[in-house]
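Quick check before the chapter quiz. The format below is the same one you will see on the exam, so make sure you can read both the input and the output lines.
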Amino acid sequence: MQFPHTPQHTQLPLFEAFMMAQPLAPILEETVEAPWSVEPEAFSELSLRGTAGSCLNLLAPILRELSEEQDARWLTLIAPPAHLTQTWLRDAGLNRERILLLQPRGFQSAQQLTCEALRLGRSHTVVSWLDPLSTTARQQLISAARAGGAQSLNIRLG
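Here is the expected output.
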């Protein structure tokens, strides 16, 4: 079907169009490539589904690695689930001398405590278990992490 007011265009096959194109002049300028960014993201989130034991088994190597960071600052766990105990930390092989376990007190929420720990910068990574996490709360964590030069890791358990 043809429309009376639509002009007809001839389309060249891709190869022919490529061959007919004007060659580009070679660029002889020195190109400096930016190095890969090794700076970690300010915020990461991990969602784990399954039984508490299965989730802890998946989480153990991540927390172990974070507890062995070369950074002299703390790995801080904010309001971890009840089944994440000192015994579990020891049995999972985490360096407990580099870990702080903090619980919110009084009217302070886990979100507020997490932001405060991030902003202070005494921890290289602050792990939280905030679920649900609103867009506003996520932005607050990112801002606090950047202010303190830390990483925020939120874990959602299903």
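If your answer matched, good. The first strand starts at residue 43 and ends at 48.
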